[in-house]
Amino acid sequence: MSRTTDELPRLASPETIAELSELMARAHTERRTVAVFGGGTAFDDHPPVPTPGLLIDLTGLAEVAERSSADLSIRAGAGARVSALDRIAARTGHEILPDLPADRIEAGSSLGGMIATAALGPRHLRRPRIVETVLSVTTVGADGTIARTADGLSSALAGRSLPSVLSGSWGTRAIIVEAEIRLTPRPASQDFVWIPGTEAAADLLIARRGPDAVVIERPPGSPAATIALVEGESAEVEAEIGFLTEQIPGARPCARPEWWARRARMPVTISLSVAPDFLPGLLETVSRLEDAIGYPLQLRGSASGRFELGLGAPETEPGVAARVVLEHLRSFGLHRISARLLHAPAALWDELDAWGPLVGRRNLQETKDDLDPHGLLSPGRGLGGI
Asked: For this UniProt entry, which segments traverse the membrane (predicted)?
């Protein structure tokens, strides 16, 4: 594509980083807003994407570098599917180190999308966040600048890690085009334990060994239960499962739940960050709210404090009910719980205070203004609607 003779399209599928850089440079000159997608598995999260002046499909940037069996990392284009990367890693008995949502992987989520959304799965108790496993990243900035370091995007970011600048930015700061991510040996065995109630969850978090995941699941209108995952060498896993079932009343081995590592998905989903000692209060509050508003509520997440609360509204518009739930949860204060809208019909984002109090919002806005002063990259999709 020539910068001077070809008209800038509304939809583009670049096959090289250089081509993407040129597209962004021209969009910057023409002040076109830009949205990018890979697998598209997070398009329904955060505020809906306004119709962009340029929509960029990154699936053409999916090349995977050949790795030797001794390497504990894999490098690929941002559009590479995570499922494909995991299959490649499995050939040498490895897997991607951070834990990621299974439903997004199955739906075709891309490497760049997982980093940009700071995706997280239930095994994060013993595994690092995805940003901590990214060894290097290449980006294209809002003005087309190709950068492999933070100060390559902006001198104001000198000394900062480029992956940390981009993780959780939802495509609002720069476009991830390539990344190298760490691998880890695949566990030989995985087994699950079902435990009635949630009383044992806090103790499991500080246990002598500790399970690899401790998840609370409260289906609509039903009591909550705790599911623990133990993985590792077969003999060790068997011994730990035996120990848990002997020590915890009512605990029993179970198959992998069909919902495991999947997000709570109902007409409205609220993301919660909860102080672990407030978990009993959260469960009591959810039951009380469910009775009060007359809508089914589903709570799922890690006992460490990261939850999704699904609000079901199959017959009517859920705006009033969602507002009641958000305001009531926020009334406990940020020291106990933080609640923000994650997934909802498009109209609700304008009706509700979707974000609530957001610590550090000024710094987030300053970084956005520095990297994208014209606000062209995915406007409104970042934390706080930035």
From this structure: none
Spatial separation of the C-alpha atoms in residues 161 and 159, rounded to whole Å: 7
**pTM higher than 0.85:** yes
Mode of pairing for the β-strands spanning 337-343 and 268-274: antiparallel
Phi, psi of 189 (to 5 degrees): -145, 150
Instruction: Kindly state the tokens that stand for 285.
Output: 């509050």
Q: Which of 336, 270, 331, 345 is nearest to 300 (CA)?
A: 270
pLDDT averaged per 10 residues, the chain (length 386): 66 96 96 94 86 94 78 93 95 94 95 96 93 96 96 91 95 96 95 96 85 96 96 94 94 96 88 93 95 92 95 72 94 94 89 90 93 95 91
| Number of continuous H segments (helices) and E segments (strands) in the chain | 12, 16
For residue 320, what are its two tokens?
Answer: 């009033």
CB atoms within 10 A of CB 128: 13
Alpha carbons 173 and 190: distance in angstroms, whole number: 38
First to last CA, the chain: 31
Backbone angles phi, psi at 303, to 5 degrees: -65, -15
For residue 167, give both structure tokens. 């993780």
In the chain the domains, ranked by start, together with CATH numbers, are 58-186+362-385 (3.30.465.10), 189-254 (3.30.70), 268-354 (3.30.70.260)
- Neighbouring C-alpha atoms within 13 Å toward the C-beta of 86: 17
* Cα(252)–Cα(242) distance, integer angstroms: 9
